[in-house]
Amino acid sequence: MDQLIESPAAISDLRSTGAIRDRCEHLLAMASDDKLQNFRCDFERLATVADYTIEVMREQYPDLQVPFHSRWRHFEAQGVPRLAELDAKLALLTPIEQAAAKFDLAIVSVLLDAGAGSWNYHEQETGLDFQRSEGLAVASFRMFCQGAFASNPQQPLCATQKGLSALTPEILALGFQVSATNPLVGISGRLELLQKLGQCLLAYPELFGEDYPRPGNLVYYLVNKSQNNTLAAVTVFQAILQGLGDIWPGRLVIAGVNLGDVWHHPAVGLVPFHKLSQWLTYSLLEPLQALGLQITGLDALTGLPEYRNGGLCLDLGLITAKNSDIWHSTYTVDSTVIVEWRALTVVLLDRIAATIREKLGMSAAELPLVKILQGGTWTAGRKIAASLRPGGIPPIQIKSDGTVF
Q1: Do residue 262 and residue 360 come from a single domain?
Q2: Structural domain count of the chain
Q3: Does 373 share its domain with 268?
Q4: What is the reported pTM?
């Protein structure tokens, strides 16, 4: 399948959401025929997963007015109105300058978002404690507000090339309250991502600006790409892949192109996922909408192949393991077990979404995948994990470097 991988067209294909679904569908077909190495699928459990997810959605959003699955939900963890606080700090800026600042925050925070282990963050401003994604979001929010990613103390509410490049392990550890008794998984990997982000800002001035490079300048590029006040979600995704593709460490590089979140499977060749890039895409849409842009083609993006969505499928029996040893081992992200689990998750999320819409009598326009993830499968995956395992750990253990999970 990948004989022509060195051609620009083949590389471009691997950076498309269509290729994600195509390769993942191939692995699902193998699972359906019981030809996949590690997993089977029990489609009779699809309705059960949909019903459980709907139950969780109604608990959170009784009127089913579900927001997007994005980093912005985590910034308001435990109901604290941090975004109102941010808006007040940005009030003197123009709308597009405010959007640029929010891009800075979202991009940095998403790149810091991966499995955190048993780490804890204590928010001094509220006295609250947070773990996992919410803790990482709140910690990065506070660091942003304190100017940790900026280079000019007079303009703290931004992330700049100089500020990101100047980050050290000590600065990040201090901001995240890391210590011998409060370790954070993959902190060196997270730091490397931010430092490489600083390098990418210089490499792509058309995306990030020439005189004052910063992630937030991407908003100007995307506004210019809009037509008749509309912007396709995949346009945002492609800009992220272009501008941030070089930050991912230890990835396949072919013809000088870092493929990012793309992994090999012996049956189908290279399987793309681009999970963090899509999570980032989802997280940039709301600042663009605040500028009056209509985002089109939301469901061209895929569900996110991470351990909450994937765990939901495993814990409710939609995916079943062929070998019980899977539950007792730890796997790297390039292992066949993890590639198969993630691939099945991507395309099963499409089927879960379709089943949920059918049960609720709602259309894809009314309930796009990005809302089902929020309502939704991610929260349901966390809930079922908490009921089954101490600490709500995922059903399969992953060795994370902080750049995928």
Answers
A1: yes
A2: 2
A3: yes
A4: 0.93
Residue 73: both structure tokens together: 């939900």
- For CA atoms 118, 139, 135, 313, give the dihedral sign: negative
Whether 405 and 267 share a structural domain: yes
Element housing 294 (H / E): strand 294-296
Residues 27 and 65 in one domain: yes
Give burial (CB, 10 Å; 0-12/13-18/19+) of 89.
Answer: middle
Do the domain assignments include residue 125? yes
Residue 375 lies in a domain: yes
Do residue 258 and residue 350 come from a single domain? yes
Q: What is the bridge-based pairing of β-strands 269-272 and 262-265?
A: antiparallel
Same domain, 39 and 75: no
Q: Beta 269-272 vs 397-399: how paired, if at all? A: unpaired
**In terms of residue numbers, what domain contains 23?**
1-69+247-278+295-405
404 and 263 within one domain: yes
Q: Please give, one letter per residue, the 3-state secondary structure of 378-396.
A: HHHHHHHHHHHCHHHCCCC
Q: H helices within 270-403, ranges in order?
A: 275-290, 307-315, 336-360, 369-372, 378-388
Q: What DSSP designation does 293 have?
A: P
Is residue 284 in some structural domain? Answer: no
| Residue 58 sits in the same domain as residue 80 | no
In a domain, 232, yes or no: no
**One digit per residue, pLDDT tens: the chain, 405 residues?**
444 455 677 888 999 999 999 999 999 999 999 999 999 999 999 999 999 999 999 999 999 999 999 999 999 999 999 999 999 999 999 999 999 999 999 999 998 887 777 899 999 999 999 998 899 999 999 999 999 999 999 999 999 999 999 999 999 999 999 999 999 887 888 888 899 999 999 999 999 999 999 999 999 999 999 999 999 999 999 999 999 988 887 788 888 888 999 999 999 999 999 998 999 999 999 999 999 999 999 999 999 999 999 999 999 999 999 999 999 999 999 999 999 999 999 999 999 999 999 999 999 999 999 999 999 999 999 999 999 999 899 999 998 766 676
Take residue 219 and report the two structure tokens written for it.
């908003």
